[in-house]
Amino acid sequence: MKSSPFVPAARSTLSALDEPSGVSLGSLMLALSVSSWAGLAHADGALKEVKVVDKAEVVQGKDAIQTKQTTIGKGKQDIRDIPQSITVMTEKLLDDVKLDTLKDALHYTAGITFAATENGTDQDIRMRGFPVATTGDLLIDGMRDPSQYDRDTFNLDRIEVMRGSASMLFGRGSTGGVINQVTKKPLLADQSDVAATVGSRGYLRTTGDFNIRTDEDAALRMNVMMTKANNGGATVDKYGIAPTYSWGIGSRDEFTVGVSHLNVDNVPQAAIRYLNGTVPNISPGNFYGTRSDYLKGEATFAHASWTRRLDDGGELRSQVRSGVFDRSQWGTVAGFGTTNGLTTTQSNLSGSTVLTRSGLAARKDRYKTTYVQSDYSNSYDAWGMKHNLLAGVDAAHEEADRFQSNGVVGTNYNKGNTSVGTPNDGRTLSASPTYRPSSNYSAKALGFYAQDLVQFAPSWKFLVGARHDNFSGDFSQLNYATGTNGAYTGTSTTRLSNSVWSYRTGLLYQPAPDQSYHISYGTSFNTSADTYQYVTAQTANTPPEKSRNFEIGAKLDWLEGKLSTRLAVFRTEKFNERTTDADFAGSAYVLSGKRHSAGLEMDVVGRITPKLEVYLSYSWIPVATIDQIGSAQANVVGSRVGLTPTQTGAAWVSYQAMPKLRIAGGLRGASVNRPLQGTSGAASTTARAPGYMVADAMVEYNFTPDVYGQINVSNITNKLYGDQLYPGFVISGAPRTALMTLGMRF
């Protein structure tokens, strides 16, 4: 069976370093700083017996599709105690559906869409119609992960999605929500999993998850991955390795150190122009790029954490992560001209239709990021009420060097024509992009926060929290004379500095252990530098945009806790968006823009019967409106925000048909979706992607308790649908793919 691959052994007692039970706020803040790590680690030599963490109770992500706890709220918390919408995708769901990348996984979470970008090979994630990736709302183990790279799931235990404003917890960004990637941690067990997958179009993927117990309270976990595929011309060639070592597991002082490295050398899928305002009727997966296209990248980071469990029940967790991220890319967009003197339309589209091919903007960049944070949590009684305190500090240092293409290869570079009937024609170009520095930045951020969950009556809790952030950065733009290989003429430098407060509050009513109802309010902000582009003096003088989120929801458990449901009604609004009209030209932009989205979200996760397991995520957003904007774009007021289809959803149902045979199937899809139109945020009136529904299926057979086989078919009907949207082009979703996996544990 694939379930329960890691069942750690329990221990009766542990010894650890002694420390005083009384801890002042001042000493806690000192403990949060990085410089205090070594001193605290050796502060006392006396030993005493402490409470044992029973590791036999730890449930891993691949054991079940349901979980009732999350770490996305800073520290481990019951989902029922967080007054916001939360969806958790465990490793079991990722393995069942074969969701190998973060983007694949997010297709199984409602309310999320993807925007293609100008160079065609990135994607921006949108949640409730607001950007996620470009505002730094991707996280790893609760710390920011803003660099652009292809994120793989081989080292993930689960993916946590929290919707709505979250700046009180994570700082800048967090309007539509945040996405937390929870990495796999060492366990006190000798257990390893290996799997090999082969499939359509030369797909080959091997993964290894090796966990070795090295001592009574120490273990090493090593995750590795290699993937290759040739998707009709678009190729995947990547590998990753992520070793992690922990010691003091479950004791007073628990330490973890690790490294992660991911290398990608792909040929990206080509984009294609809209035809008659919609996705052209061309077989999904057809590749109209060239062999010279590329998407290359390396992501390497080291991380360390220290958890100190205090005598009074409190916990102090500090962590640091530092990494370097390199990426370069050059893609293709295929367009329609005339064939035999006729303008191409959907009705005359055929295999002989001529396609033009132009190179998108070549891009290269390097990011260097370092993040440090410490979080303190504890429960105590005061003034006749029970309190759950959470407080912390975090700091960030981010640098980037960006490059632009230079020479004969530039934006819209002619890559030669082809035809609809000759995809993957093997064309190789003699020219390739060369690069020169275009911009760079260096930014620092420091944030302090505290929140308290107060139980003031047997069934009532009140949450209140506040955070203060300081952000500053120096941004430089390198200037060149016009023309190819233009001479360097100087550098323009701008400095940006912001200081902002964020707030969060909520009221929870919990009349029974299986019921939790909430109403909440939270704020968020994003600076002019969230996308890490060059910041002009006018932009630097503009205060941050601000947003707020209102939510009413319920989290209910059924069938003795085996089935969890979540329902929420929300309104998320940005109430002072930057207005970039020429009418407002001056020393700063005017924060006069407004937009909002409102709707309903629901999840159903868990077991209906011992043999039947279900996962359902659904979002209905009937309202996503531009409320106010500059006078030059006044015509879009009242129109719908782009990249916010009215309905999105996904479902996955698994049934244990026989003791050794399990079958499963799923659906995912969205209603009509439209790209953003220009800078206004409104939906395009000339381009759209029709609504779609895609079916996936899986069959698993356990030959022995330790050996299994699995067959997956995704996009069973080979449905053509627009996956990543840009005003001028679309990138279609993956075609029908069959995969066969053989897995073993030992």
Q: Could you give the topology of this structure?
A:
Blueprint: E1 14-17, H1 25-32, H2 37-41, E2 47-50, E3 69-70, E4 77-78, E5 86-90, H3 91-97, H4 102-106, E6 112-116, E7 123-127, E8 130-131, E9 138-140, E10 143-144, E11 156-163, H5 167-170, E12 177-183, E13 191-199, E14 203-215, E15 218-231, E16 234-247, E17 253-266, E18 271-273, E19 294-309, E20 315-330, E21 332-336, E22 338-339, E23 342-343, E24 354-359, E25 363-382, E26 385-406, E27 413-414, E28 418-419, E29 434-457, E30 460-480, E31 488-512, E32 515-526, H6 537-540, E33 545-558, E34 563-579, E35 590-609, E36 612-628, E37 647-658, E38 661-670, E39 692-704, E40 707-714, E41 722-726, E42 729-732, E43 737-745
Parallel strand pairs: 6-41, 9-12, 18-21
Antiparallel strand pairs: 1-2, 3-4, 5-11, 6-7, 7-8, 9-10, 11-12, 13-14, 13-43, 14-15, 15-16, 16-17, 17-19, 18-42, 19-20, 20-25, 21-24, 22-23, 24-27, 24-28, 25-26, 26-29, 29-30, 30-31, 31-32, 32-33, 33-34, 34-35, 35-36, 36-37, 37-38, 38-39, 39-40, 40-43, 41-42
